[in-house]
Design goal:
Elements: H1 2-6, E1 14-17, H2 24-33, E2 37-42, H3 47-55, E3 65-71, E4 74-83, E5 97-107, E6 112-122, H4 131-155, H5 168-181
């Protein structure tokens, strides 16, 4: 992540990342060295932080913000709960808020509903970290991610690639991503 971001002006911006990049060193780099904020997803790679957020039982209270979208045969409701009580005690640098996002998806033709909850952290101050804004930042992160994966999965049919030996898979991945960039 660092070599990529070193080439981009990110001061004053908000960088979103999924759990793979939820690392203390990356948070320090973004805030201290680059003057940016972060919104990170917290999963099993940060078990202490995840347990601390889960212990708040945020979903037991009324949500702080909600969005409802209908399209592609689905009804999607996203709810967010935010809390700043852990900022002094959570073992992760620069955390100002923790949050829980619940995604409730109803597949209209099947009548099937799924509910998923994820946790997150942000370095944004109270003035910047309005629940609606964090929810929008998280949604935008996944829309970018999903669009790139769609191109890789559908256009390049990456999942059915037969290239499995030596450096072949890595080389092809680099070529596909270079093609997307062009």
């Amino acid at each position: 992540m660092r070599p990529l971001l070193d080439e981009i002006e990110i001061a004053g911006k908000v960088i979103t990342a999924d759990a793979l990049l939820t690392q203390k060193a990356i948070a320090e780099y973004l805030v201290n060295e680059r003057g940016a904020d972060f919104v990170f997803t917290v999963k099993e790679n940060q078990p202490t932080v995840k347990r601390a957020i889960a212990a708040l039982a945020l979903r037991a209270r009324r949500c702080d913000a909600e969005t409802i979208e209908k399209g592609h045969g689905r009804l999607e409701i996203r709810r967010i709960w935010c809390d700043d009580s852990l900022k002094a005690s959570v073992n992760f640098p620069h955390v100002q808020h923790v949050f829980c996002i619940e995604r409730e998806v109803t597949y209209l033709k099947k009548g099937l509903t799924t509910v998923e909850a994820v946790y997150g952290i942000t370095s944004q101050s109270t003035e910047k970290a309005r629940p609606e804004k964090i929810l929008a930042q998280n949604r935008k992160h996944w829309s970018v991610e999903n669009k790139q994966h769609y191109v890789l999965d559908v256009t390049f049919d990456e999942d059915r690639s037969q290239i499995r030996r030596l450096n072949g898979p890595m080389v092809m991945t680099c070529l596909r991503r270079a093609a997307i960039s062009l």
